[in-house]
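Sample entry as discussed:
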Amino acid sequence: MKILMDAGPWLAVPPLGYGGLENVVATLTSELRSRGHTVVLATVGESEQDADGYVWAFPVGQFARLAAPYPEVVGAAHTHAQAVVAEIRRHAAAGAPFDLVHTHLEVVGPAVLGALGDAVPPVLHTVHWDLGRNADFYASFNGRGRVFFAGVSDSQIRRASALLRQQTLGSVPLAVPIPEGPPARREERTGSVLVLSRLCEAKGIDIALRACRAAGVPLVLAGPVGGQPDRASLEFALADPASPVRGYPDVGWFLDHVAPELDGDRARWIGSVSGVEKADLLRRSQAVLFPIRWDEPGGTAVCEALAAGTPVVAMARGCLPALVTTGVTGFLAEDEEEFAEALGRLADLDPEACVATARSRFSPEVMADGYEKLYAELLHRVATPNSMSRRAG
C-alpha cells in the first residue's frame, strides 16, 4: 500500500523534544514500512525519520507559532496543506497515485482534502485532541464518504458529535517503541517524580507542584512553555519588548503559577528533553505524573512511561482510566488530595508489570495492526459508498 502520512508543519518527526503526535507518526511510519508499505512523509525539512519520500513547506518546525493568536497561525497550516495537495497531484500525474492519505493535521487536513472530493485519494484523519476544541467543525464536517476519522481512545470518541461518530472507523490506542532490556531497579532510580508535557494550566502543573510538596517528593518538569523549549529561550523572548511570546496565555500562566514555586532543588524545570536524556529520565524517575484538568484523549507520554517500566499517577479523566490499572501500573486520583496520597504508595508498584502492559497494549506492532484494519475498512467504504454517509449533515 502507498500512503501519504501527513504529520503537519509543527514539529520534526521524530520530534527533537516535546511532541506526542510526531512521536506517534514516527513510530507508525517505521512499523508500516517494516511491513512492506510505502510511506511518503509530509512534515518539516529538519525531520530525520526514515521514509520513502518527503514533502514539506517549512525547513523547520513551526511549533512556536501555535501559541500565537489565530491570524498568526492559520497561514502556516494552509501553506503546509498546499504542499500536501501538490504532492498528491504530482504522484497521480506520474501514474503512481497514493492509495490513501493519513492526515494528523487538525481541521485543515480534512477540510482541504475533503473539499477536493474525488481529486484526492481516500483520507483517514486521526484526531489527537479533546474534541471540545474546534467542536463546531467536527460537529458539522461531512466527509461525504471520502474522508473518515480515527480516534486515539474510545473515551474520546464517546464525547464526539453524532456526525463525527458516524464517520469514525474506530479507535487505535497510541504506541511507542518498547526499550530493550529490563526496567531500572529501585536502587537505580532517582528520588524524583517527573512531569513530561507542555507546562500549562490544562496539564495541571500547579497541582503537581502542590501534591509533591505535600508528599515531600522532588519534582522535575520537562517540557516547553508557550512554544519555548527551555528557560534560556523563554527569558530571551521575554526580554524582547516586541516578542509575541510576552502575550501568550501559557507563558503568563506559567510566570504566575509555576515559576515562583521553582527552587532548583525540590521543584525544577529542565526544559524539553529528547533522545538519550529523555529515555534516561523516564527510566530512572520514580513515577510520571498526569494531574490533568482536561479530558486527555490519547496519552502518548503515559505509554512512554509504562514502556520504560515507570508507573503513572494521574487524574481519572479522559483516556487515563483505560491506560492505567490502579495498583498495577499506577494510581488514579479523583482530586488533589488523593493525588498526593498516591505519591506515598509508589513502592507498591512493580516496574516489570508496567513494561508487560506496554508491550501487550501499546507497542508499535499493536498500533500498526489497528491502523491496517482501518485502512482496509476505509478503502472498502470508498469502493462501496454508502449514500447515507454522503448525505450526512
Q: What stands out?
A: Residues 100 and 122 are 5 Å apart (CA to CA). The domain at 2-175+363-391 is CATH 3.40.50.2000 (Rossmann fold). Residues 387-393 have pLDDT under 50 and may be disordered.
